[in-house]
Structures are given as C-alpha cells and as structure tokens.
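Bug #77: duplicate submission created two jobs. Keeping one. Sequence:
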Amino acid sequence: MMMEYSVMLITDIPLSLLPDRMAICKLSPDADFPEWGRFGDISAFIQTHEEITVICSERFVPPDVKAERGWRVIKVQGPLDFTMVGVISSISAVLAQAKVSIFALSTYETDYFLVKEESLPAALSALEQANIIVNDPGR
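Kept job's structure:
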C-alpha cells in the first residue's frame, strides 16, 4: 500500500512568533535533565552519547551553563499531518536566502524555527517578502 503525501504551499501555513527569548544549552551526556530546562514557551531535551542539549527559556538557565542565548522562536501553527512534505525545507530555504541561520525543531504536531534575536528582523522581512505571514503578538 502506497502512502499518499501532500505538498502544501508554505503561504497557506500560518506562523507565529513566540514571545520568550530562548537558550540552547549543552550538558554532559551523563547529566540529569535539569528542572530549570522545563520552563518557557517551549522546552526540549535531546540526548545523545556525546551530550544533552536543552532548549528552554534563557531566563531560567544558570549563568555557569554552557549556552547560546538570545534565540527567538517562530512556530508553524499545527497540527501538521505526517504526510505533508517540504514544510521545513521551504521555510528554511527562504531564511537561508536571507542569510538567516536557524536551529529547527519538530514535535509530533508541528515545527519550530529558532533564529538569533539580532537576525529576527531579517527573518521576518524575508518571510513577509515570500508572502508568509508571521503573527507577532508584540506588534
């Protein structure tokens, strides 16, 4: 049985800017998942044999933790069906054309793009020029 896949125009997918500033933290692979990593608009724990990565609100990250701070989150409004193809590649291509570096995350229902706060105006402008509207509650 062949699975049917759908390609959706990225201009049909609503995006929203989440208000929290995020951090991407690196812990040793044998560390416990920290309680401070569970707070903010989103939080994620990714464990490999080499490291644990924690994505969380930067305001809760202790100062001694190795972290890249100052990320903002653009959320794809889900839920997205697993048969949809090209969502991440389409949006990331628009941002790559604008020379905006991303850190992408996916959950069961949707996708998230983290961009550095200083690149956020360029990211929002590039998406707008591509006719992709980002709901920004701060505007």
